[in-house]
Structure formats: structure tokens, C-alpha cells
């Protein structure tokens, strides 16, 4: 089992969490294959996806040796229990639910609760979050991240929303420990059309941008 500290170190190395929401169950395996070929390590299936638990279980079995599989949109402890039972190695939420954080922490499961304000961010961190998901980043903007990081630079933040190939390095430079990426890698249209080669290319392009950024750091 991944410890929370080890999971955080891996996140800081690989930086990207690929978010899959509403993925058809019969296409999930092909998407996972494409993500792995593109170099993605962290992949998250949201719990409001039909068949999410089956997909998580399937991905752990087929890709567990190369990827870290998580559950997203985990809103309460019951959902957390179901996700962990299916094999989720970390939990991601759009909100701060201290009961979910405690459940994950007590079991050594990574947990990334979603927060927006300084009060929410600090509360999530004090409750035992592995890192805090700053959300919704598309609306808040990179300026908000920079302002938040000034007083809260000791808390690792994963920004989600609005991150693209043309700005991913800017978000990393502004202090995010990682980024959550949905449509920038695997959007609904690509999945419906079975364009797995494009999903692989999108993933590889993002992964290369992260590697270039990491290599440029002193």
C-alpha cells in the first residue's frame, strides 16, 4: 500500500492527475491503455461515472503495476468505503469533508479534498489531507493561486480546472504541487470517437511539459 508521504512525493514528481468523468465502461480499458502509453501515472475515475467502481477495479488489475488509480467526486464516507473496496489508492473530493479525510488518513489512503478559501485549505490540511485540491481553478485563475501560495506555501496544492498545455508550466512555476487534467487529455468527444491515439498524444505532450519544467528547476 502507498503511504500518504510516498504518494505525495510521487505526485510532486509526476505532477499530473488525469481525471475521467462519465467515461463509458466499454471504452475505459482502451483509455487506460492510452494514458499509460502517454506516460500518465495518476488516473482518477469520478464516482458519478456510471460503473465507476468496476472501472477502478479493472484498472487496478490491469494497470496497477504502472499507474496509481484513484476515485474522484468522493462526497461522503460511504462513497469513500466503496471506492477503497474497489481498489482506489487515493480519494479526491470537490469539498472538505473531515470525516472522509480521517477515513482515508486512518487507512493510509491518499486524500485530496477540494477547497477554495484560505480557511478551507488550512482546515483540510489540519484534518490530514495528503494535498489540497484548489478548485475551481478555471474561475479563480492563476493570480489567485499565486496569492494563496504566499501565506500558505507549506501546504501542497493540486490545481484543477483551466490547466492546458499552454499554461501548465506557469501553474507549476506558481507553486502547484500537481494539476488535475480532464478534457485537456481525454475529453468526451475523443473517447466517443475512439481516438485513443490522440488521447495518448495529449497525455505524452503534457507529460513532456512536466519533465521539461522539472529539468529546468535548480
TrEMBL record:
InterPro entries: Aldlse_KDPG_KHG, Aldolase_TIM. Homotrimer. Transmembrane segments: none annotated. Keywords: Carbohydrate metabolism, Lyase. It comes from the Bacteria. Belongs to the KHG/KDPG aldolase family. The keyword Transcription regulation does not apply. Pathway: Carbohydrate acid metabolism. It holds the Pfam family Aldolase. One of its GO terms (molecular function) is lyase activity. This is 2-dehydro-3-deoxyphosphogluconate aldolase / (4S)-4-hydroxy-2-oxoglutarate aldolase.
